[in-house]
Amino acid sequence: MSDPGSTELAAAIPVPLPGAGGAEPVNVLVVGVGGQGVIMVSKLIALLAQQQGYEVKQSEVHGMAKRGGAVFSHVRFGKLVWSPTIPKGEADFLVALEWAEGLRWLDYLRPGTGVFICDTKQIVPPFSCRDRRPGAALGYVRETVSDVIARVGEGYAIDATHMAEQLGNDRVGNVVLLGALSAALNFPAAQWEKIVADFVPKKTTAVNLEALRQGRRWIEEARKGLQHPASVPPPPSPTVADYRVRLEITPQWCKSCDICVKMCPERCLRLNAERIVELAAPDKCTGCRLCEWLCPDFAIRVHLDRTMAGAGMEAAR
Ligand code: SF4
Ligand code: SF4
After folding, report:
1. Which end of the chain has fewer beta carbons closer than 10 Å to its terminal beta carbon, N or C?
2. Residue nearest ligand 1's atom 8 by CA
3. CA 286 to centroid of ligand 1, rounded, Å
4. Cα 262–264–265 angle (5° rounding)?
5. Which numbered ligand comes closest to the C-alpha of 269?
6. Lowest mean pLDDT across 232-241, 250-259, 267-276
7. How does DSSP classify residue 91?
8. How far are the Cα atoms of 51, 87, 89, 93 from residue 82, in angstroms, in the given order?
């Protein structure tokens, strides 16, 4: 393993320059969960490689695009590419938009030289909430950044989502990661900017370009030792005494679909006379968040308000 702040990354990059005659294709695996923009990232990489004169093959699999299902896309480019899928252990780059998804695909990275670029964003899936007792620990990965960096040739853990939020648009986290990748792939920076500007909606061009530049700058500074991997907070596991559950329901967004009512493990929701969801049995609600995760219209938010006993836990959640 090498220090993420080292300059070894440039030397390790296996990307052949156009016309340089690399016999093997370059393999980029992009992973994340539905709604994060995995497909957009892989399309941009594929388009750019095509414009540079490479043969490109791309394949993608997406689950529940809106509700947090796993999404991944293989992009392969080179002089000749026979198969659209990357064999295990042959990805030159793994770009992960979500922390646990990144870890799940680590075996696909090329041992010793594979470059891992991962957002530290944690999206805890509903099935991680198997133990419904109040305050039970979530079944989510617990590896730290150091654990993961130790397993890869080159590793970068970036708080891309936070950087996107700072830019005023939390949807451009994927472009921050694309910018980080752009510093590692040997295509001209101007070409990356052009492909992004051509692809995104015109009204978001400025923020997307800034996201791309910030991601690129982050890696360049990491090479000089000026940036450090972001940390990953452990998944929250407050105890029952630490918090009080509060449901925030936005009635005008509720479409009366009944999903949350049927899926609430504690049966504490119902539709009222206007067929808008309401919390019927607050004392039974464990704060498991299934209703928040499953509502297709984002009409429910679950808040865990800190109590005196749990000072400090709310921030972790
Ligand atoms: S899942 Fe959402 S839209 Fe459907 S009833 Fe519940 S709050 Fe309303
Ligand atoms: S109301 Fe929501 S947070 Fe509370 S127990 Fe039911 S699904 Fe979980």
Report:
1. N
2. 254
3. 18
4. 115
5. 2
6. 232-241
7. B
8. 19, 12, 17, 19
pLDDT tens profile 28-81:
999 988 778 889 999 999 999 999 889 999 887 765 545 557 788 999 999 888
What span, in angstroms and rounded, lies between the C-alpha atoms of 71 and 93?
16
Q: Assess if residue 141 is contained within a domain.
A: yes
Percent pLDDT > 70 in the chain is: 76
132 Cα–ligand 2 center, Å: 10
296 Cα: distance to centroid of ligand 1 (angstroms) = 7
Pick the residue whose CA is nearest to atom 2 on ligand 2.
291
In the listed set 165, 188, 223, which residue is the last one of a domain according to the structure? 223
pLDDT of 222 > 70? The answer is yes
Closest residue by Cα to atom 1, ligand 2, is: 285
Q: Quick check: CB of 200 below 6 Å from ligand 2?
A: no
β-bridge partners, 271? 277
Q: What type of residue is 199?
A: F
* Residue 278: both structure tokens together: 């309401």
Give residue 232 CA to ligand 2 midpoint distance, Å.
26
What atom of ligand 2 comes closest to residue 284's alpha carbon?
5
Rounded distance between C-alpha atoms, residue 298 and residue 246, angstroms? 16
Residues with CB under 6 A from ligand 1: 254-260, 277, 295, 297, 299-300
Ligand 2 centroid – CA 286 distance (Å): 6
Alpha-carbon distance of 94 to 76, in angstroms, equals: 12
Domain boundary among 169, 192, 223: 223
Q: Beta-strand (E) ranges in the chain?
A: 26-33, 55-62, 70-78, 93-96, 115-119, 154-158, 243-249, 269-271, 277-279, 300-306
Amino acid found at 200? V
Only one residue has tokens 């979530």, namely 138
Same domain, 270 and 124: no
Examine the domain organization and report whether 217 and 274 are in the same domain: no
